[in-house]
Amino acid sequence: MEPASTFFKEEKDPYYIKGFKKGAEKERIKASSEFAERLILATDYTNEVIAVLAGVTIAFVKTKRRTVVKKSRLKK
User: Residue 31 domain-assigned?
Assistant: First the structure.
């Protein structure tokens, strides 16, 4: 009996492809979030400018800014 790996290629499996795409999307969102946070901390850019640079929504930047401000207050 031959192993299943000779017949089955995971790269062609639709569930593998779906999971791969989902993981890539999560990673993109995480990177955008971290970039937006660094822009908030290091610059005086407006929410609109940060949203454009990071590729996120203005609402996301506003929420992120509130979180960052709250974190910085807790550290003091």
Answer: no
Sign of the CA dihedral 63, 32, 47, 71?
Answer: positive
Give the predicted TM-score (pTM) of the model.
Answer: 0.72
The burial class, CB within 10 Å (0-12 / 13-18 / 19+), for 64 is: buried
pLDDT in tens, 16-55: 889 999 999 999 999 999 999 999 999 999 999 999 999 9
**Residue 19 Cα distances to 9, 11, 15, 37, 48, angstroms:** 15, 11, 6, 27, 32
Which amino acid would we find at residue 6? T
Instruction: Note down the domain range covering 50.
Output: 37-76
Domain count, the chain: 1
